[in-house]
Amino acid sequence: MSSLIVALLAIAVAGFAAGVYRRLALWRQGRAVDLPLSLLLQVPKRYLVDLHHIVARDRYIANTHVAAAGGVVGSFVLLVLVYVLGFKNAFTYGVLWGLLVLGLLGAFFVFKRRQSPPDRLSRGHWAMVPYSLFAFGLGFLGLTIAEANASQGTLALVATVLAIVGVREIAGGALLSRPLKHLLSGSVHLAFHPRQARFDQVGALSTDLRPMDPEAEQYGVGKVSDFEWNRLLSFDACVECGKCQEACPAYAAGQPLNPKKLIQDLVAGMEGRSDQAYAGAGHPGMPVGTHQPGSDGALFPSLLEEQTLYACTTCRACVQACPMMIEHVDAIVDMRRFVALEQGGVPSNAQAVLQTLRNTDTVGGYDLAERANWSVDLQLPIAQPGQHVEVLFWSGESAYELRNQKTLRLVAQLLKKAGVNAAVIGEQELDTGDVARRLGDELLFQNLAERNINYLNTLSFDRILTIDPHVLQALGQEYRAFGADFEVLHHTQLLDQLVHSGDLDLSRALQRGTVTYHDPCYLGRYNGETEAPRRLLDALNLQVAEMERSGMNSRCCGWGGGAAFSDVPGEHRVPDLRMQEIHAVQAKTVAVACPNCMTMLEGVVQDQTEVVDIVELVAEAAGV
Amino acid sequence: MKYEHLFKPLQLNQLTIRNRIMSTAHAEVYAENNLTTERYVRYYEEKAKGGLGLAICGGSSPVSRDQPQQWWSAVDITDDRCIEHFGNLAEAVHRHGAHIMIQATHMGRRNAYWGGDWPHLVSPSGIREPVHRGTAKIIEPHEIQRIIDDFGKAAIRVKQSGLDGMEISCAHQHLVDQFWSPRTNKRTDEWGGSLENRMRFGIEVFRSIREAVGRDFAVGMRMCGEEFHHDGLSHEDFKEIAQAMCETGLIDFISVVGSGADTHNTLANCMPPMALPPEPFIDLAAGIKSVSSVPVMHAQGIRDPMQAERALAEGMVDLVGMTRGMIADPHMVNKIREGKETQIRQCVGANYCIDRQYLGQDVLCVQNAATSRERFMPHQIQRTDGPLRKVVVVGAGPAGCEAARVSAERGHQVVLFERSDAVGGQINLAAQAPQRDQMAGIVRWFDMELKRLGVEVRLNTDADAQAIRAENPDIVVLATGGRPGIEEDPAWGGQSGLAVSSWDVLSGQVPVQDNVLVYDVMGQHAGTGTADYCSNKGARVEIVTPEPKVADDTGGTTFPIFYRRIYGQGILMTPNFWLQRAYQEDDKVIAVLMNEYTEELEEREVDQLIIENGIIPNDGLYWQLREESANGGITEMNELYDHQPQPILAGIPAGQFALFRVGDCISMHNIHGAIYDALRIAKDF
Predict the structure, then answer these.
(1) ipTM
(2) pLDDT tens digits for range B292-314
(3) A113 lies in which domain range?
(4) Are residues B516 and B465 in the same domain?
(5) Please, are residues A228 and A199 in contact by the beta-carbon 8 Å criterion?
(6) Please, are residues A349 and A307 in contact by the beta-carbon 8 Å criterion?
(7) How far B18 CA sits from the closest chain A CA (Å)?
(8) What pLDDT score was predicted for residue A204?
(9) Do B98 and A377 make contact, defined as CB atoms within 8 angstroms?
(10) Which of B167, B285, B640, B676 is the most exposed place for a label (fewest CB within 10 A)?
């Protein structure tokens, strides 16, 4: 009996080893990355700390996972201890059986969850997992009890069959591309995560869009092997839990993007097969099973369609939600670079915007000479080289649009009231290129970034102020890769400082009823700032109701990533969905902190809720 | 960008004007002792706060003493005493990011000598001015030189004070264009004859000003684009003048106004009333712009932002004057900026403002009672910090609508009862008269605001005392208006049905007969409007009034419009007659008329006798409710006139209500009076 168990273990090890070999081969289709092997030592910490932070958001599945994974992995270790190394005593048997029972308990919870599984979960192989876990637990319980009691017969036979079923699922996952491959890919992914900074400083760098070499032979990712190997690995770590699907605004709006499916499409591409085996929700409006990679692993359009890529708002809700720490958005932008620059496949409306941006250095085709028109009556000087200012006020595209000019103007008036020495940039200010970068036109983005940085370097200022979180991200984070080192503040951050330093007095009472705050993606998820706006609302003594999706889990307004321009058709409009959530908390006012959120939410036809920028509330209370 | 042209700044010499919306020069009649004191300053400050780019104040401010200043409380620039007050004005306007210039002029013959220093008015050829009955002498060379010098001295005062610039009126036939126009300049010396000679005076004036203020100070001229007089200057003449003036390099801008103004009929064009089409004279401005090397401004009938944006986008003008627009709503520009166009209280061209001004009265807006009363009356109603109350308003005419609107802005819960099927009251009747349809704009704004503010409007509801009590109100405002006063004299036959009222006809309830006599006791818009209405329906119409002339109480820019219609349609005017009695003869009505001055009687045989005699107040509800109200229905007069809250508002006993009345249900007032009644009482609710 012992030898049967040892044989099963040997098969498991061999199968696992074969699995490792196969997966390594699959991952290594990708481009080489310079990362030390010693990163593997980081796995336990990253598993227990970083990953745990995310998984623990769903306590049920966290406990289930501890039980199932702990039980299964632990019992493998004990089986080796007992049967290979020969530590046979009451204690080791006791621990072994305890772990097997723990695994069964985990399996039971998995089973229960899958009784009426939510739409986000995949079926197919995944539906088999609880049964395989049962088989493993019961099989080895049976075998080890039989062995301990030296009994043979039907029980042992049944147990052997069950144990084989279990071993196949668990140890064979990697080889057979079944769900429990994530035991391997998930762990290795933690070591070689494409964005190592994620584990060092949470929120310090929220994206890993790398500058593209303008001289490169090919721009962006057009086939599987164009991804770096650890990105392929990250896709392979996906457990198809669908948390991303649940978080995705495009999916909710019925646009043809399901981030989970997108990752699984890439896995299919990596494995050189079609998406037929995929057993979860597809890209809305698109059939499942008809897509496969082209020759040489080409992604477009046979595996992925352009409208799927361009439905993404780059809101990173999927990234935030993913327990496996997969970063979908960076991959999407890499692929968009290929589609935009190699194939000219940007949706035509967005293509027109890029053309305009290329020609005029503004998204809307405006005259740079009119950039400072909005402030002409506010005694806000235009920054001059050699004259130091505390705050350089970035006007952005809002300079050309009346609704958001109101935000700019109120911020300027509050700065004046608080005695802050500020200046605008005027006609030397170009668009940051955010839209271009997100749409995949990295060349245009880099051109704008370099020219902006060159001019900003001629000016003398302490910090840059913006009302637009996309500018905050571009100037403050993404320009660093091009040599910039600017301190950039969002207006809610500066106003928060001014209120708490006593330079702004918000003593006028507001009568607003229930107010809710809509976190802009690029302020919250990209820059980690969810509290400054809330502190302002607190200082205003408003009755604030939080939406179910708020803070780091906020729902996108639908603007970002060029989505407002690409305008990929769906069943609903993203901002309409967000407005429903705003209405769900009976808010009479929704405060936003981004001119683009303003545009999108004000575009919703409704008269229940007034959309304001937070600064409007601050100004009202400050008597400006 | 929406309104990209409206919000594009404009460089005007040393000034960066923040947007293209301006208030052109008009006589405000707010100056005290001919100085721009607090009321005047607050009037312009409100517009600056409301977002306008440029204001030119002080229409027809005289630079010389030989101009009586009291007729329109003109702003005096003849003396250094103005400087301090101009400084206050400039500071208040600059504080909000706007700019302000002043118009300076010498009006020549366009005045009346019998006041002030009793001057002998001067004019190039001493020809009498018809509108002001201005008899004048022929100006002498030494007077010409004195006045040229006076312009320079005035310019120094303006520049010293901190105002942003100066506009010289060369329009409406002031002295400069009295020299230009062959209609008034018959001289044969160096100041008359050729265009070059006729332009000499104006050029000397600008040269004198430039010498005084230097190059870096905005100086411009307002000119006419076409006089519409057979012996006057044509559009082509003005283009020639404009081009020549630009070539002198002395001016920074031209403001163009259509139509001469020295007859009653041309004067009515200058501030186009609602009868005229939108922007009737913008082509004249565009014509001047075609030869001008400096920015061109133009007002006259540009009322909404789309119109303004289009005029700019098409390159017709560089600055859009929306002068009456901002009298009606000084916050218009900010509302455009904030996408709240539907909240703009838009000028309807009723010309109550200018018609008052021509009587020497302060300029007031027919629909906005806060204008020029900024010291006491809010344009932006603040929510109350006190208790939130239930306010019941009865009657949705202008007084009731305003009371409901202001109460709702204060944060109160408001129910507005209205007997008919629409809000608006008598304005709805006024809008029935031909070419008076835009009166309905006043109602439209109220209607939209009441909806926006969540006022519960109960139409088709004849509220009685019981219905009012059932609301458990804290405040009841009666705005029940009146009913036609045709029963005042039983001999008129109003009771017996021999005569019908103007309301009966305008409302369409009584069809117009073939041969109609309209008896207009009041001399206001209603009587003439009714006559016009009947004539428009094909009737033969005679309008009889005891007033000195038909439509005598309608105002200097309004009666000419009525007269164009009356003469055009052959309506017979019979002023100075009373209706003594009416009687039936077969199927005809015989109206017996008595001459005011001879007492001779005349008879008319007509199919229909229509009487306009104003209203009798509907005060029934008041008498039913006053006993039980907390204040006995009494509005404390001193507090009301001192703009203070009514004492009862400090504490209305629980279960009781305060009772107030506004508008015609007290005694007949006009629309402005009704709205002012409501605003001044409800602002403190």
Answers:
(1) 0.88
(2) 999 999 999 999 999 999 999 99
(3) 2-191
(4) no
(5) no
(6) no
(7) 6
(8) 53
(9) yes
(10) B640
In the predicted structure, residue A469 carries a pLDDT above the cut 90: yes
For residue A403, list chain B residues with Cβ-Cβ distance below 8 A. Answer: 338-339
Q: Do A370 and B8 touch (CB under 8 A)?
A: yes
Residue B173's domain spans which residues? 10-324
Q: What is the residue type of A9?
A: L
What is the distance of C-alpha A134 from the center of its chain? 34
**Contact across the interface for B18 and A376, Cβ inside 8 Å:** yes
Q: At what angle do helices A2-27 and A125-148 cross, to 10 degrees?
A: 150
Name which of A373, A400, A511 is nearest B9 (Cβ-Cβ). Answer: A373
CB contact under 8 A, B2 and A364: no
Question: Is B337 near chain A, with CB under 8 Å?
Answer: yes
CB contact under 8 A, B9 and A406: no
Same domain, B88 and B169: yes
Find all residues with CB under 8 Å of B433, minimum gap 6, and list them.
Answer: B506, B525, B529, B530, B532, B533
pLDDT digits (tens, 9 = 90+) for A313-340: 999 999 999 999 999 999 999 999 999 9
Cis peptide before A287 (omega within 30 of 0): no
CB B428 within 8 A of CB B444: no
- The span from the CA of B94 to the CA of B44, in Å, is 10
Stated pTM of the model: 0.91
Examine the fold and report which residue of B581, B615, B649 is the final residue of a domain before the chain moves on: B615
Q: Classify residue B12 by its DSSP letter.
A: E
Of B1, B16, B18, Cβ closest to residue A402: B1
Contacts of B9 in chain A (CB under 8 A): 373, 376
pLDDT at site A201: 65
- Top residue of A362, A366, A373, A611 to mutate, by most chain B CBs within 10 Å, is A373
Helix (H) or strand (E) holding A544: strand A543-544
Residue B627 counted as domain residue: yes
- A370/B contact by beta carbon, under 8 A: yes
Domain count, chain B: 3
What is the average pLDDT across B645-667?
96
Pick from B368, B300, B373, B380: which is nearest to B340 by CA? B380
Tell me, yes or no, whether B164 and B231 share the same domain. Answer: yes
| CB within 8 Å: A376 and B16 | yes
Residues 6+ apart with CB under 8 A from A38: none
The reply to whether residue A373 touches residue B97, judged by beta carbons under 8 angstroms, is no
In a domain, A244, yes or no: no
pLDDT digits (tens, 9 = 90+) for A104-139: 999 999 999 888 889 999 999 999 999 999 999 999
Instruction: Let me know if residue B173 belongs to a domain.
Output: yes
B7 Cβ under 8 Å from any chain A Cβ: yes
**Contact B16/A at CB under 8 A:** yes
d(CA A566, CA A559): 10
pLDDT tens-digit map of A31-74: 999 999 999 999 999 998 888 888 888 888 889 999 999 999 99
Residues B448 and B513 in one domain: no
Q: Do A400 and B1 touch (CB under 8 A)?
A: yes
- Per-residue b or e along A182-206, where b marks 16 or more CB atoms closer than 10 Å to that residue's CB: bbbbbbbbbbbbbbeebbeeeeebb
Q: Is the pLDDT of residue A3 over 90?
A: no
* Contacting residues of B for A400, CB less than 8 Å apart: 1, 4
Q: Given the DSSP bridges, would you call strands B577-585 and B588-595 parallel, antiparallel or unpaired?
A: antiparallel
Confidence of residue A2 (pLDDT cuts 50, 70, 90): confident
Give B123→chain A minimum CA distance, Å: 43
B465/B394 Cα distance (integer angstroms): 10
Contact B97 A402 (CB under 8 A): no
Do both B50 and B144 map to the same domain? yes
Q: Does residue B659 share a domain with residue B527?
A: no
Secondary structure of residue A113 in the 3-state scheme: helix
Point out the residue among B1, B18, B385 whose CB comes nearest to the CB of A401: B1
Do B18 and A400 make contact, defined as CB atoms within 8 angstroms?
A: no
